Structure formats: structure tokens, C-alpha cells
Amino acid sequence: MDKALNHALRLPRDTFFPAPPALPIAVVEKHSDKQPISKNDFTYLPHTHSFQELVAVSEGTGVQWIDGQEFPVLRGDLFLLRGDREHCFKAPCTMHLYNLLFVQEELPLPYDLLRKMPGYQMFFHAGPTLGTARHRYGMHLGPEKIDRLIRQITALEELLRCCRVGYEAKAILLLLEIFINISENAEENLSDADGLLPRISLALSKMEQDISRDWKIEELAEITYTSPRNFLRLFSKVIGTSPIAYLLHLRLTQAGEYLSRGISIAETAQLCGFHDANYFGKQFKKLYGVSPRAYGRSGGK
């Protein structure tokens, strides 16, 4: 792997989003053949960030680098990056793509209802972790389906650019339509023969809804209708890591969000299920490269 990929940048939130209370949604279009590289173009630079990134490829081919692994990308590919994973595209690429950026925790969407859709669980919860278990990342849509999604994203881009009176409500509605469209495609696209992903998605959903809880393997196994031993095997096969490691990652990601919003270290640790301050600090620094105190002072930048 290139030496340059060993040092990831941490992108500040205000690089793409206006100051609160504006909607934390942005659309960044990238056409590698026609656009010069701008100061805010991090396409080929390894980076992380505190927001989510939905990438839709409308033309061309390339290679996506995520946490040391390379994935081929082509027209019709759609994938979600949580942001805390180091990622970039490897140059050169000949692609036209759309990056839909958003801060899920701050958007007034009906997540309880979305979670009832198996496809939502598959793509938005399990999907970002599947890179270690699959040769491809995300899912692939046919020409008509990717074109429809791109039209929705460009319509959202236009709303955000013009900012006419009432644009916020329209933008939220259109974003919800995009999520539903993706979820419906994911249920068909990501389902596997033995149904592993839908079953594991149930456990992921429960964990994400209550990250402070000390989940027991027996409880998660019961949710997925299997034995504890088989659950561990299936979870590792689908997600590529253990339930404990996955839950720790969820907690640390949420902790970063809380600290960037000015919530104290003690309260953040409690909200995220950390009972030992030293352990919290050690694990946080391992992921983010700085202490929780330094991260909070910088506002997550």
C-alpha cells in the first residue's frame, strides 16, 4: 500500500455543512474527467469524518480504498461510509459520482419506521461493515435504478443550493424518499441464499438503538433465532468482527458525536456505556488519535 495512505486526514464538519441550525445535508458532485481539484477535494486523500457519506457512481470505474482494503467500483455502485473508517479513491479514476453527506443523528427522520424495513437494516446498518466479508462494497444497481436515484440526489442538490423558503421540509421529504428507494433495492440486492444478512441485521438494529446496554451474546442470539455459538459464527462471517468489537465501535463513534457537540467527557462516557474512564480514554485515543478532552476542545475537528 502506498505510504501516503498511512496518514488519514480528519475532515472538519464545517468543510461541507453550514453552521447549525441549518440542515446537516450536503451533496458533492465529482467528475474526475472535467473538474479541476479544489481545496476541498479529498477524493484521493485518505480521510475520516464525523458524518455519513452515501456514494453513488453514475459513470466510469475506479478503486475505493477503505481501511487498507481495495474494492473495485463501477457505474451503478452505491455504498455508505460511516466516516470513521479511513477511505479514499485511488488515482487515477474515470468516474462521475455523487456524494450525499448527512449527520443522521440530527435529522428529523422516522428512524423507528425505517428500521422496520429489512432493506434499511441491510444497507444502512450492516452494509458499511461488509467490506471485510465481501469482495465488493455496498451494492450494485442496474441502469434504470441508478439513474432514478441520481435524479433524486440531484433534485436534493438543487433544493439545498437555492434555499428557497420552505426548502428544509422539502429536503427532508426527498431524503426520506431516497432512503426508502435504497432500502427497497437493498432488500432484493443484498439478500443471500441462507438469509444471514437479514438475521444479523436484527441484532445490529437492537445494538444501535441501545448502545449503552451491556448486551449479552445469549440475548443477541435469541433475537436472531439461533444458538449463542452459531450467532458468533454468523456475526463474524457477515460483519467480519465480533459483536463486542462492533459494539465498542458503535459506542466510540457516538462518543465522538457527543464530544463534538460540547457534552462533557463524564456524561459522554455514561451515555455510551463506558463505566471505566481510563478504558474509555484509551479506546477513544486508539480510534481517533487524540484524547477525549482534546477532541472535545477541537469540536471534533
Q: Would you give an account of this structure?
A:
The protein is α+β, with helices and mostly antiparallel strands and 301 residues long. It contains 11 helices and 8 strands. Helix 2 crosses helix 5, helix 3 packs antiparallel against helix 4 and helix 6 packs across helix 7. The radius of gyration is 19 Å and the shape is globular. 33% of the residues are buried. The N terminus is likely disordered.
How many discrete domains? 2
Principal-axes geometry comes out as globular
Mean pLDDT: 84
Assigned CATH superfamily of the largest domain: Regulatory protein AraC
Strand content: 15-25%
- The CATH class designation of the largest domain is Mainly Beta
Key terms:
six-stranded antiparallel sheet; 301 residues; 18% strand; 8 strands; single chain; two-stranded parallel sheet; Arc Repressor Mutant, subunit A
List the topology elements.
Blueprint: E1 9-10, E2 25-31, E3 47-48, E4 52-66, E5 69-74, E6 77-81, E7 87-102, H1 111-114, H2 118-126, E8 139-140, H3 143-162, H4 167-189, H5 196-209, H6 217-223, H7 228-239, H8 243-260, H9 265-271, H10 277-288, H11 292-297
Parallel strand pairs: 1-3
Antiparallel strand pairs: 2-7, 4-5, 4-6, 4-7, 6-8
What's this model, at a glance?
Helix content is 44%, strand content 18%. The chain has eleven helices and eight strands. The longest helix is centred in the middle third of the chain and has 23 residues, at 167-189.
